Amino acid sequence: MSELNKIALKIISNGKGILAADESNGTMTKRLEAVGVTSTPENRLLFRETLFSSESMKEYIGGVILYDETINQTTKSGKSIPKLISSSGALPGIKVDTGAKDLANSSEEKITEGLDGLRERLKKYYDLGARFTKWRGVFTISDNYPSKLAIKCNAHALARYSALVQENKMVPIIEPEVLMDGDHSSNICLKKTSEVIKKCFDELTLHKIDLSGIILKPNMILAGNKSKDKISNEEVSIKTLECLKNTVPSEVPGIAFLSGGQSEVEAAQNLNLINKNNKTKFIMTYSYGRALQQSALRIWSKNTEDRESTQKIFNHRVKMCSLAAQGKWSNELENK
Ligand code: 13P
After folding, report:
1. CA 261 to ligand 1 centroid distance, Å
2. How many Å apart are CA 225 and CA 220, to the nearest integer?
3. Does the CB atom of residue 66 touch ligand 1 within 6 A?
4. Is the pLDDT of residue 1 over 90?
5. Of the residues 141, 160, 204, 239, which has the fewest C-beta atoms closer than 10 A?
6. pLDDT by residue (tens digit) across 180-194?
7. Which residue segment(s) compose the domain that 211 sits in?
8. pTM (2 decimals)?
């Protein structure tokens, strides 16, 4: 078993998953302002530190994805954030892309940037304690999109990123996110997502990536958020599994889904059914941002010093996701 494979398995095995707390300052500012909290480095740290100190971290979280600001921060008690995360048994990870910019000659689409100087940044992050990384490519669905150009460029960038990350002894999370925005059907989402993931693996293979040392972070197969094609959770799970079975090489140890705008309960329910119906060998778990943090953030914003109430709600969410990652979630446990 390679070292990278061991790291990947440590993050996603035994009902554990990933807390995606790597919102850029811009995104975090929007999230904080939406609940009436001023976005300062201190407030961003306080919220994240409250989550990272929660009891549930020990049992259910295998890795936390951080943003550059957070990986460099220190708690009031003098512990660095990567140390706080590793003291719970989870591995610190870091988002290393520098964001999605307009793609030249297809300006309604995006290309993710961040390859320049990446090798040097990776060394610095490794020294700070990071053992895995994240890069997100983003794709929109419409009549003409995602274009072949957007699919090819983003897959290429994901592969070059992965090669540099593995060279620096860290596990790359490969996140090709096909957004749920639009009025497309779930079958279109299935077709487009399959095309995107296939192209990613073509490029990863070309760039000689050790596929046993990566984690794939895809979207689930959903109908567009403005679509009339409302499909059941059972259908979401079947179509998501069909997509992954046909596109992901067997060496890949696991898949950690993004929540992508699903509600907290929906994201748990769908992951649960994916695991109940999973006949592949892939571990299927969570790498949720909003679906782990939304309620906790709402409670925290009412009294930012009240760690207990925030942690209570976060612990419940994390536990529900972990149960879902084992196919053991139920409505009854959710509402207990
Ligand atoms: P969501 O679960 O909120 O979609 O965030 C996951 C993520 O890491 C997006 O890049």
Report:
1. 8
2. 13
3. no
4. no
5. 160
6. 999 999 999 999 999
7. 3-334
8. 0.98
